[in-house]
Specification:
- This protein has a single domain, classed as TIM Barrel (Alpha-Beta Barrel).
- Helices cover about 35% and strands about 10% of the residues.
- It contains nine helices and seven strands; from the N terminus they run H-E-H-E-H-E-H-E-H-E-H-E-H-E-H-H.
- Strand 2, helix 3 and strand 3 form a beta-alpha-beta unit.
Length: about 260
Amino acid sequence: MPGFSGPELAAAVSDAGGLGHIGGCFSQAEDVRLAIEQVRRLTAKPFGVYLIPQHSDHTTFRTCLKEVIKERPQILTLCYGYYGDAIRKARAAGICVAVQVRSQAEARMALRDGAQILIAQGEEAAGYIPGQIGLMALLPELIALAGDVPVMAAGSVHDCHSVRGLMAMGAAGVWCTAGFAVCHESSAGKKVKQRLLSAETGSERLCCEPVPDVEQQAPSPHKTLRQNSLLRRFLSSSAEKIIRISIPYAFTGGRGLDR
């Protein structure tokens, strides 16, 4: 989540047993370096960096990628673009590479280029570019296609029941995003968090359409974006409950789901 998942949130998720990510529309390679350094000051656990080629110009993406390769976080996650030799270069530096995909065609391209993890983005997911296929249909297709390559599931992963269901279908893990925006460590402003907390299943235009908030902890570098019913239920319960449950279940493989 660009603008929301900074070093504090990435470190908190990793410390809780997940795989935290620094979220990704960086304007300068220096921002990448500083964010990685800060995460390392906050945690000794593995973490990743999330880059979105389509939301930056080619030169910016290449310079940010160069910084990631230099700093060597444990994982680089890519989505929405053609990466050229990015996957090969990251893997040569010892960095695991995951790619978020929305179809079999995108999955084949990622596997051809050497992706070590696929993230199946169903149309339910709160992605910057809408998914094309429902997760219940997409996930089995990609698991069959990927062979020994792990496939994670993304799309309306909002409680322990959805995590267990997706794992039972064969997902190697789950990819959680917008639910983390309400956590204490999130850089989202209070008004954005409140919009998420008060949203219902059919709510439109949630966290990715910026809300003015003078208390925003960090400026969001990404463009003004709109969600059209893609965030499916980030929850009507209290902020306290979401903050307690959201971090432990991400990437846990079933640990801590009832906490």
